[in-house]
Amino acid sequence: MRNRNLILNYIFISCLAILFLNDHFFKFQYTSWFTGKLSDVVGIILLPMLLTYLFPKLKQYSVFVAGFLFAFWKSPYSENLIQLYNTVSPIPLHRVVDYTDLLVLLLLPVPYILIKNTRIIDHFAFKKINPSFVLLPSMLILMSTSNGSRYFSYVPYSGNLHFNNNTSFEINKSKNEVLLELKKRDIRVEKDTARIIAMNRGRFFGMGKFEQKNLYNNEKFYHVSDDSIKAVAFKMIEESNEYKINTLQLGDQTIWDVQFNMYSKDNNTTKVIVNSARIGEALKAEEVDRKLRKIYKKLLIEKFNTL
């Protein structure tokens, strides 16, 4: 039997409100390390309670499911799943791999205690609210967070600018025409081989063969043909829509390593999804905010929509 108090308590509602406000307001107005991590903190607290409400048999063990899902999402192993989703979805899905996000897993004992001792949340529960009024907004807020509700995130120690929300647009030209126009403007575009290979490393690993009998001797335990892997890699690179611009001048600003996905929707339309770029390091918060908005606007409007 579902315990309605799992999602009808002050703790859950407060975390949900903070998650919504942080992703849709605070991250824009107060860009910092704190607002970047706040959503993960409240999310890891409310997710196990939501899972237990939806799947009562999980009980307090939902924290392990939530922890696994969170760790998988924050790891490079989810990249192939994200790419598969982006091929069928009109709304691109992106996320930034930042292993410091995994520190919030240390907070899992909080929802564990609350779920195991429901009498605690019973004292803070709303008695006259239908769970449906909270469940639907919860799902929508979590989905919008998962799809990346921010336009960007800035990681000061790496200088990387990651675009995380609907940073896509269409150009009324064929893909070949777009590439030709970029070449005419002396903008060097190349396949992002490092990203392509990283996204498909699981496939490369599966091409080999394990020799179990050689586990305890000096013979090769794993056999793979180097020529076969290279042939597959070249084919992947040729068929991939992942591109990279090493250096791009935007007025008086220079950005580097612009990663984007570009593919043909039809013979006369090309869709571009900007993934990330690299800007200057050690910027103050107010400089980051001003510079990001300037780069974001110029990158999308001037360099692509004018092609």
TrEMBL record:
The chain crosses the membrane at residues 7-26, 38-54. Keywords: Membrane, Transmembrane, Transmembrane helix. It comes from Chryseobacterium oleae. This is Uncharacterized protein. The keyword Membrane applies. It comes from the Bacteria. PROSITE patterns: PROKAR_LIPOPROTEIN.
